[in-house]
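Model it.
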Amino acid sequence: MAIIKGKVFVYGHDVNTDVIFPGKYTYTVTDPKEIASHALEDEDPDFIKEVKPGDIIVAGKNFGCGSSREQAAFCFKYLGMGAVIAESYSRIYFRNCINAGLPALEIKNLLGRIKRGDTLEINTETGTVFLPDGSTVTFPPLPPEVDEIMQKGGLDEYIKAKLAAKNSNL
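Modeled.
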């Protein structure tokens, strides 16, 4: 999963899971396309009209705070987003992103340096973000285990692949 390149959507601090995926749909919407269609609808009604596969969210501190609903991570995965970058995450949201196979990168000092519509390029192996002004920001690269989960498309697929490999060696 070395290179991620996409258009940026910028949000602030404390973006909670109810804003990411409204709670009113939690028990009634199960189709992945419909889950994706409700991403950020109350926070940013234009988001769903503008987002393209590979695009990137950049946010401030405490992204994904609030309830632990999985749909708040999976809605971005179903849209084909390249990554979510925040200064910090709710631990449960961070884990849900890994489960979904959606890179959730903790990178400080991006807010104020980029704007909505800018293009970022991220190298997850070297831990480098290439900014539109030509400068770079570094972050710790993804651990190999997490990168492997991302490459498999999420935790379920990673476990299935591990079990299949184990069973083929029997």
